[in-house]
Amino acid sequence: FEDCAVPVANRIGDEGQGFLIAMKGLNGGRINVASCSLGAAYASVVLTRDHLNVRKQFGEPLANKQYLQFKLADMATRLVASRLMIRSAAVALQEEREDAVALCSMAKLFATDECFAICNQALQMHGGYGYLKDYAIQQYVRDSRVHQILEGSNEVMRMLISRSLLQQ
Fold this sequence. Notes:
Elements: H1 18-54, E1 56-57, E2 60-61, H2 66-94, H3 100-125, H4 137-147, H5 154-166
Antiparallel strand pairs: 1-2
Helix pairs in contact: 1-2, 1-3, 1-4, 2-3, 3-4, 3-5
Pfam families: Acyl-CoA_dh_1
Family: Belongs to the acyl-CoA dehydrogenase family.
Cofactor: FAD
């Protein structure tokens, strides 16, 4: 707005501080997007676990295949790491710590990348069923992919993280 007078009592912050205020809002949004990815990834792990127990190949459940057991273990490990990183960033933001921007950016970057990988792996482990609209996995893959773009792309997150590190 040009030449728009706003009474001091109606201002959200000090003059010239709008960008910083907006950035604080984005940090909470980044935790939210990362958490949405986490939910999709969690559901994908549960659905994949159930699928491996039910689906049979050559007379035995897919869950008996060590290769698939290892894939499921990796998915669960990525899930827990993402959850912990999101929680750490949320605590930093709540405490208004100096490292909150970097941690929120790291959590968004890490969680959305890892959770997309989890959902994508889940789709792969469901085989052709994973692409069918009757199976939620296909939706989780699409949803988690867009999370890598929302609230600042993951390339922007890398830029914010590196700036924070270089200013220390």
